[in-house]
Amino acid sequence: MIVFWRTPETNKAIHVVSSGLKAVLTWHNMHTLQECREAVGGQGVKTENLVGQLKGEFDVQTTFEGDNNVLMQQVSKALFAEYVSCKKRNKPFRGLGLEHMNSSRPVLPTQLSSSTLRCSQFQKNVFCLRERDLLERFTSEVAQLQGRGESRESSFLVNHELAEDLGKAFTEKAILQTILDAEAKLPAGSSKDVLGLVRSMYALISIEEDPSFLRYGYLSRDNVGDVRREVSKLCGEVRPHALALVTSFGIPDAFLGPIAFNWVEANAWSSV
Ligand SMILES: Cc1cc2nc3c(=O)[nH]c(=O)nc-3n(C[C@H](O)[C@H](O)[C@H](O)COP(=O)(O)OP(=O)(O)OC[C@H]3O[C@@H](n4cnc5c(N)ncnc54)[C@H](O)[C@@H]3O)c2cc1C
Question: Which of 62, 112, 186, 224 has the fewest CB within 10 Å, making it most exposed?
Fold first, then answer.
């Protein structure tokens, strides 16, 4: 869990992180419901299995309390302000998880083996590289437009796609860091091992699903092919733990549809 004690200094971080999390997690929610719907075929469209109801109920979350695309831009504007302020005052980055910008740009290996892809340092480097590069591109594009006499607001708006990519990069890095912090606190053992698998799954699926890695050239076509194969291997390794992982959320039975239990019995003539 990302924890902030509320002080005037942390208010900005709370605002930026919660804006990013709201957008990324509500999109993830809809994506997950659709995956669940398809994974169980026709059972997913039965009212009693609740997927349709949950989709109808949660869809609005991507729009209200701040439209997700606009929130992503808000995150990027805050990062822009932080970047400009640090550069202007010639001060190191402090806060918002931007401290990695004080070190040199990470260099990724050209060949990605299975152990490299699962290495937490590699995963962190990839996420930091994406965030750093997008932030530098965004600030440079906005500065160029402002230099040509455009207003700040219009310079942001013209670069809204870059801003949305950056907002996603920031938020996914914050999520990865949260998993790494939780993992570091666990003693060696099976829980730590399973969390490591889940963390790799999260990092590699994020890489696989974000076109930024290819679009801006952080990874090659061969690299993303390796990532895809590793995701498939991870799915096989996580599968035996899937039920225990879902059970660990402690969702009360009353909130679940028959598909979560003995769905064959629930569909038998005697139960209809
Ligand atoms: C069920 C529900 C409850 C609500 N409750 C409240 C409430 O209690 N209080 C309240 O104040 N409001 C409430 N709202 C309003 C809500 O905050 C707005 O619907 C939301 O901010 C989106 O604005 P909009 O509907 O005008 O859509 P628009 O802003 O027109 O958005 C439509 C599309 O345009 C895109 N878009 C808009 N601006 C930009 C931009 N700058 N850059 C890129 N893309 C952009 C959006 O991403 C979206 O895809 C509620 C809305 C709903 C649906």
Answer: 186
Between the CA of 72 and the centroid of ligand 1 the distance, in Å, is 14
pLDDT of residue 4: 64
pLDDT tens digit string along 12-48? 899 999 999 999 999 999 999 999 999 999 999 999 9
Per-residue model confidence as pLDDT tens digits over 131-158: 999 999 999 999 999 999 999 999 999 9
The whole domain housing 188 covers 71-249
Ligand 1 centroid from CA 227, angstroms:
36
| 190 domain-assigned | yes
249 C-alpha to ligand 1 centroid (Å):
31
Q: Which atom in ligand 1 lies closest to the alpha carbon of residue 73?
A: 42
In three-state secondary structure terms, 68 is helix
- Which ligand 1 atom lies nearest to the CA of residue 69? 47
185 within domain boundaries: yes
242 in helix, strand or coil?
Answer: helix
Classify each residue of 106-115 as buried b or exposed e, where b means 16 or more C-beta atoms within 10 Å of its C-beta: beeeeebeee
Q: Establish if 102 belongs to a structural domain.
A: yes
How many domains does the structure of the chain reveal?
1
